[in-house]
Specification:
Elements: H1 3-20, H2 29-41, H3 50-66, E1 71-76, E2 82-86, H4 95-115
Antiparallel strand pairs: 1-2
Length: about 120
Amino acid sequence: MEDWELDFEWLHVRNLVKDAMRRETLPDMNMVLFLVGIHELGRWQKGYTKEEKQDLMHIGVCCLLAQEGYFEFVGRDQDGWPHYRQVLEVPSVNTLEQERLLKICAVKFFKEWAKSEVDAPDIKT
């Protein structure tokens, strides 16, 4: 994917998340990862602890990188939280390249979400 195309698609993803979260500003990568994590968890609650927010962003990263074969879903724990196992080493690249990879995966994730005709969650924060 060329840089201009990724920039365009990433802006689209950010707008989808902004609307889903009913925010006035565009979200950053962490907010996108948080929403992906909530989607994978499958439930929304009014408030999350700092640790739960970190866990949800980690789930978001694992879910996105699973599309590229770096992680695989292994199941849920007794509380229903998803767990992933790393199956490939994630390339050792600089921060910009890591973010580019996550953006590409997020674009794929939200395109698949749209294809499945599942509406974005109605999330009020």
